[in-house]
Design a protein that fits this description.
Length: 183
C-alpha cells in the first residue's frame, strides 16, 4: 500500500495549475478622484412638507462632543437621568388600617371600644405582616402592622379592665318599674 492518492479517472497525468496573472497577482486599488474635479452627486431633494427640518438629536449622556460640533457639559451631580432607578415598594393598606384601628382602640378604651377594635387591629396587623413577609420586598409597612397589632392588644386589655372596674365598682342600676317613682 502506498500513501499516494488514487489516480484521476481520466487515466492520465493531472493538469497543471493555471499560470499566475501578469504582475505577480497584485492588483493595486484604483487611484482616488482628484479634489475639486470629477463627478459630484447632486444634493438630496428637500424633504416633503414645506422644508421642515427635524430638530437635532439630543446630546449624549454625560456630556462630551457631539458630531455636529460644540461641547455639551455633563449633568450636575445628584441628578439622575430619566427612567433610571427602581420602583419603591408600596405600603400595604392593611398595615395602615391596622395602625388606625389600633390607635382608635387605645384612645377610646374608656368607652369599651377596644373590645371590638382591639382584636380587629390585631388580626389585621397579623395578616398584614404575613402578606409583607411573603411579598418578596414588593410591600412595605411591617412596622405599621406590628404597631397596629400591639396597639390592638393593648386597647383590648385596657377596655376589658375598664369594663370590669366599672361593673365591680357598683355602678349598676336596678329598676323595679314605675312603683319606685310613686312611693
Amino acid at each position: 500500500m502506498s500513501d499516494l492518492p488514487p489516480p484521476p479517472p481520466g487515466g492520465g497525468t493531472p493538469t497543471p495549475p493555471p499560470p499566475p496573472p501578469p504582475g505577480g497577482g497584485f492588483n493595486p486599488p484604483p487611484p482616488p478622484p482628484p479634489p475639486g474635479g470629477g463627478f459630484n452627486p447632486p444634493p438630496p431633494p428637500p424633504p416633503p412638507g414645506g422644508g421642515f427640518n427635524p430638530p437635532p438629536p439630543p446630546p449624549p449622556p454625560g456630556g462630551g462632543y457631539t458630531p455636529g460640533g460644540g461641547y455639551v457639559p455633563p449633568a450636575p451631580m445628584g441628578y439622575m437621568q430619566g427612567g433610571v432607578g427602581y420602583a419603591q415598594p408600596r405600603t400595604d393598606g392593611l398595615a395602615i388600617a391596622s395602625l388606625i384601628v389600633g390607635i382608635v382602640g387605645v384612645v377610646c378604651f374608656f368607652l369599651c371600644l377596644g373590645i371590638v377594635a382591639g382584636p380587629t387591629a390585631a388580626i389585621m396587623g397579623f395578616v398584614s405582616r404575613q402578606r409583607i413577609a411573603s411579598s418578596g420586598g414588593m410591600l412595605s409597612g411591617g412596622g405599621m402592622a406590628l404597631a397596629g397589632l400591639i396597639l390592638g392588644v393593648v386597647g383590648f386589655i385596657a377596655s376589658v379592665i375598664t369594663f370590669f372596674v366599672y361593673i365591680l365598682s357598683g355602678h349598676t342600676t336596678t329598676t323595679t318599674g314605675l312603683a319606685t317613682l310613686f312611693q
